[in-house]
Amino acid sequence: MNRRAMLGGFIAVGGYLFLPMAGCGAPKPLATPMPVPPASAPPATPAEEMMMPTEFSLPPLPYAPDALEPHLDAQTLKLHHDMHHKGYVDGANAALKALEEARNSGDYKLVDHWSKKLAFHASGHLLHSLFWTNMAPSGKGGAPSKELAAAISSFFGDLDKMKAQMSAAARTVEGSGWGILGYNPFDQSLAILQAENHEKKAIWSVVPLLVVDVWEHAYYLKYQNRRADFVTAWWNVVSWDDVSKRFAKARQFKGLV
Ligand code: MN
Fold it and tell me: How far is the CA of 92 from the centre of ligand 1 (A)?
């Protein structure tokens, strides 16, 4: 099995199914990819392309660091993206490399360590990639699509109830973690999850649509210990346009079992 587990265009990392979208830091081919087939060979099928070795890369922020002021401050956003997110990208690539070396040498004595590191860092990379694109300057994020609004009403009562549950989930994560709104193709449902660290408490099939980072590094410079205030302010910069697009794409995923 390749380093990526691909399921019909989805990347499964740390318990989540990730929808690769432009600007989201999806894995890119390594510098030394698999041998290129002769020019006379038919074009690679999607299945063959999936088998390319990959590495992760840091996507650029989709806006200036001060674009989400005053709700998310520029200094925090820049540090968060340039230092913290990059750390997860580097950590995931280091784990991939270590596991490749283990396969080559047949020495698996550290496989437990590196598997855990891969889950942590790759999930951190995934969630941060979503987090940036899930946000837009205040007033520029649009509104939930008709389909998303209907699904939210069906599963949570209405948008305000969904926001209240997700806020409460994010507010009460023990230690470092995330609040997540996701679509579950297993039973065509919406779910609100907590994640501890980046990868714990997942439902394996859930595709994250909207995520909020509640690690202290996401808010402490501006909000100190007031995580609840940060979460309340964060709703002002949610890009419902992005969430709606992710929902439409996630709903195309069928046949998980
Ligand atoms: Mn973070």
Answer: 15
What whole-number distance in Å separates Cα of residue 249 and Cα of residue 19? 8
Distance between CA atoms of 48 and 56, rounded to whole angstroms? 19
Dump pLDDT digits (tens) for 112-129.
999 999 999 999 999 999
The answer to whether residues 184 and 206 touch, using CB atoms and an 8 Å cutoff, is: yes
Going from the N-terminus, what domains does the chain have, and what CATH number goes with each?
1-22+74-257 (3.55.40.20)
| pLDDT score of 11 more than 90 | no
Give the global pTM: 0.84
How far away, in angstroms, is 125 Cα from ligand 1 center?
9
pLDDT tens digits, 194-216: 999 999 999 999 999 999 999 99
